[in-house]
Amino acid sequence: MTDVALKIENATKRFPGVLALDHAALELRPGEVHALLGENGAGKSTLIKIITGVHEPTEGTVWVDGEEVTFKSPHDAMDAGIGAVHQERNLIPRFTVAENIMLEAVPTKRGQVDYAEMRRQAEYWLSELDLDIDPDLPVQRLSVAQMQLLEIARALSLKSRVLLLDEPTASITEHEVQVLFSFLRKLKAQGVAILFVSHKLEEVFEICDRVTVLRDGKNACTNVPISDLNRDGVVAHMVGRDNALSDLGHRAPVDAPTKLELKDVSTRIGHSNVNLHAKKGEVLGFYGLVGAGRSELARALIGADKITGGQVLIDGKEAKISSVQDALRKYQMGYVSEDRKGDGLILAHSVADNIGVTIWHKIAKFGGFVTDTMQRKSVRGFVDRLEVKTPSLQQTLGNLSGGNQQKVSVAKWLAAETEILIIDEPTVGVDIRTKGYLHKLIWEVAEAGVTVLVISSDMPEIVAVADRLIVMNEMQVVGDLPNSRDYDEMSQKIMQSIVGASDLKESA
């Protein structure tokens, strides 16, 4: 085994109007977890796509096990022993869980697909990640968090010598993170070289051995032992200065009328007797393990799924929401989806189009006509406010980094001037500085009188940003907790709510 499993030198990638990578370098060793860090747009995902054959570098060299290689496609990279979990999901919704896991290594018997063996192997990889999912279930019926874990299971099934993980914990909870980390440690002991991309620095310090930081497409630090750095040092490399982070500060208790109330709400997807309320200007947080039903409840509230019983009250009056358009135009309710690329954004359209879509009906001239000039004028302030890094408002959204796409998904609902805003996984794929900015923005929006419902799988985030916490488990509300913002105290109360509900169900 060589001392270096993968080496990148002078990796440069140019796109129209964008220099995404500028002579970047990276070195992965067998039996280590190596962190690749940087702000949104720093070039992390571009570097991974070069390593995995999605992009060819404009300049630069890739070595695998000491030999120079040129990848013309992802299959070339897989043949060289490189597996990856990309930020963008690459699952086939109509295929089953088992078919997706074994897609790159379909077992056969006498020239035919061996479905029994496929199911057996899929069950093994699901069990390795402690995933209780039926292998025969179509992927389109999974939650976003389950899809994230399924992507990881598929990458693991390839038994790669080099494993690249781009934001693998973005949509999963602490329990799932620890299961994943346990398996990564097992792979590390087997000599696998692992590249770990994350904006969650606490995870980086827990699991990683060395770190490389990119800033503006260049190396800010390269192959540094994690033991030589602290949190402030990493942040300074990422943003180019010390003290880039600031605490959220104090937020006074909300004393206002109830804006949104759910009474005994049931949904087609399986919720029953859901009762909760949110005040005007309150930040109401939602936490729960994978499959708890938080995102599904949000989709039912905005008319994207069916409410089958109970009442939804807005300003004390029953609301009948039959579509997303109803939610926005009749009740000023918006939803920043956790699946920004599937539900929230149109990647082939411009930045301006993606933000402007929620306000076309407001800015349209007689006859419904909207000019590009009108739209740009209406959205420019929101692009500036959220510091979206884009060459122009006409830039195709798919050419921006994942974090900047997330900013656009928030910007379009701020432009719509909603009175109730549901934000699902607000900082998935967002760098640490932008994460702090978005947290402050949530508070600013709430202080302006907007009722904000925040769904997050990141427990420190939900404890930091929410005024009150709704805990869900198996499609039901199992806790309604005042938030002291003391993480140790609140994390214990949250888990007690979940465990207590599970124990009660088992005893029944």
TrEMBL record:
Keywords noted in UniProt: ATP-binding, Cell membrane, Hydrolase, Membrane, Nucleotide-binding, Repeat, Sugar transport, Translocase, Transport
Sequence ranges assigned to domain ABC transporter in this UniProt record: 6-241, 254-499
InterPro entries per the UniProt record, alphabetical: AAA+_ATPase, ABC_carbohydrate_import_ATPase, ABC_transporter-like_ATP-bd, ABC_transporter-like_CS, P-loop_NTPase
Enzyme class, UniProt record, top EC level: hydrolase
Domain of life: Bacteria
Keyword Repeat: yes
GO cellular component, as recorded: plasma membrane
Main location: membrane
One MF term in the entry's GO annotations: ATP binding
Recorded topology in the membrane: Peripheral membrane protein
Pfam family, one: ABC_tran
E.C. number: 3.6.3.17
Coiled coil: none
Subcellular location: Cell membrane
UniProt KW Transport keyword: yes
PANTHER family membership: CARBOHYDRATE TRANSPORT ATP-BINDING PROTEIN MG119-RELATED (PTHR43790), GALACTOFURANOSE TRANSPORTER ATP-BINDING PROTEIN YTFR (PTHR43790:SF9)
Name of the protein in question: Ribose import ATP-binding protein RbsA
Organism name: Cognatishimia activa
Gene from which the chain derives: rbsA_2
